[in-house]
Amino acid sequence: MSEYRLYCVGESGNCYKVALMLELCGCDWEPVSVDYFGGETRGAAYRDSINEMGEVPMLEGKGTRLTQSGAILTWLAQQTGRFGGRNEAERLEILRWMLFDNHKFTSYYATLRWMVGLAKQGDPAVVQFLKTRAVGAFQIVDKHLAKTPFLLGDEPTIADFSLIGYHYYTEETGIDRNEFPHLVAWIRRIAELPGWKHPYELMSRGMKA
Ligand SMILES: N[C@@H](CCC(=O)N[C@@H](CS)C(=O)NCC(=O)O)C(=O)O
């Protein structure tokens, strides 16, 4: 059995945040496929025994079980001594970006992608709301990345792995990333890190074609 087991589904950028960290750190890990599209996370068995919050990802390893990608990334940074910031000020800066990510950068965009790109349905007013909020978050990150190659400076951290979660999927969402050139350059920069892999190289797809 691998040291770490990630309960996940390939289409989930929240799972990818953790899978990417595990891979870049050279951890001994394996994905455990969750039948997300079949409703497994909504069932009582999953909520009672895997994650009471009814979400992927869940990481199991070293006698610990953790959910919430931000908490998992923080724990993995402590376990591996990698990508977690060099001092208290950097660790707080990482937390600041991960909170922004969970509230605004990933959440609106991931929901937009789900509605427009995967489920291909959604109330036009809701879609427009999500798009406006996602674009607003993209603008903030793009402006920040005009000043720095990674979120905290010259080196990548778990803050980058948190925000990057949804940016290698290709579904149409109605947002043109080319309007955010610094964001695009950062996406490319992360893909050039040694050991980088695309989400579908790390985790199985769950959606039936
Ligand atoms: N803040 C959580 C978000 C996790 C999340 O929303 N996961 C989605 C899949 S990408 C999920 O399981 N959603 C189930 C639901 O909302 O019912 C994290 O970063 O881990």
Give a verbal description of the structure.
The protein is an alpha+beta fold and 209 residues long. 50% of the residues lie in helices and 9% in strands. The chain contains eight helices and four strands, in the order E-H-E-H-E-E-H-H-H-H-H-H. The radius of gyration is 17 Å and the shape is globular. The mean pLDDT is 98. Glutathione binds next to helix 3.
Topology at a glance:
Layout: E1 4-8, H1 13-24, E2 29-33, H2 44-49, E3 58-61, E4 64-67, H3 69-80, H4 88-119, H5 124-145, H6 158-163, H7 181-191, H8 199-202
Parallel strand pairs: 1-2
Antiparallel strand pairs: 1-3, 3-4
Helix pairs in contact: 1-3, 4-5, 5-7
Summarize the structure.
The protein is α+β, with helices and mostly antiparallel strands. Helices cover 50% and strands 9% of the residues.
Q: What structural class is derived from the secondary structure elements?
A: alpha+beta
Ions, cofactors and other ligands present here are: glutathione
The count of β-strands is 4
Distance between termini?
A: 30 Å
Strand order of the biggest β-sheet: 2-1-3-4
Give the % helix. Answer: 40-55%
Helix count from the secondary structure assignment: 8
Q: Spans of 5+ residues with little confidence (pLDDT < 50)?
A: none
- H/E order of the elements? EHEHEEHHHHHH
Principal-axes shape call: globular
* Percentage of residues in DSSP E strands: 5-15%
Rg over CA atoms: 17 Å
Main sheet properties? 4 strands, mixed
Q: What is the residue-averaged pLDDT?
A: 98
